[in-house]
Amino acid sequence: MAWIALIIAGVLEVCWASGLKYSEGFTKPIPTVFTIVTMMGSFWLLALAMRTIPLGTAYAIWTGIGAVGAVIFGIVMLGEAASIGRLIAICMILGGIILLKLFSPA
């Protein structure tokens, strides 16, 4: 259950990071509310996951999911560059996430 909470927390991190972009500095009400709600959900689920998963593992995976998701969102939805360097970086982050999961005691 902790790993499911952590994955959902990571997805919600992508949501709130994307919401930040659309809130335009918290000047647009609907994206601002979306950002705050998804941020709260993300932090709550991260805290829930940390009851079982070690701090370093949980935090690294949470931020890794957020980073990879934000880059993919930027490429797909915002037309950001999909350079070979960025794609390699995504693969490296994903590799780290997988290794952390494999070697986690929880």
Automatic annotation (TrEMBL):
Query: What UniProt keywords apply to this chain's record, in alphabetical order?
Result: Cell membrane, Membrane, Transmembrane, Transmembrane helix, Transport
InterPro entries, per database record: EmrE-like, Small_drug/metabolite_transptr, Small_multidrug_res
* Superkingdom per UniProt: Bacteria
Q: Name one Pfam family in it.
A: Multi_Drug_Res
Keyword Membrane attributed: yes
Citing just one GO molecular function, the answer is: transmembrane transporter activity
Q: What's a BP term from Gene Ontology annotated to this protein? A: xenobiotic detoxification by transmembrane export across the plasma membrane
Q: Which GO terms describe its cellular component?
A: plasma membrane
Q: Where are the transmembrane segments?
A: 33-50, 57-78, 84-103
Topology versus the membrane, per the UniProt entry?
Multi-pass membrane protein
Q: Where in the cell is it found?
A: Cell membrane
Q: Which family does it belong to?
A: Belongs to the drug/metabolite transporter (DMT) superfamily. Small multidrug resistance (SMR) (TC 2.A.7.1) family. Gdx/SugE subfamily.
PANTHER family given in the database record: GUANIDINIUM EXPORTER, SMR FAMILY PROTON-DEPENDENT DRUG EFFLUX TRANSPORTER SUGE
Q: What is this protein called?
A: Guanidinium exporter
The protein's organism comes out as: Thalassospira profundimaris
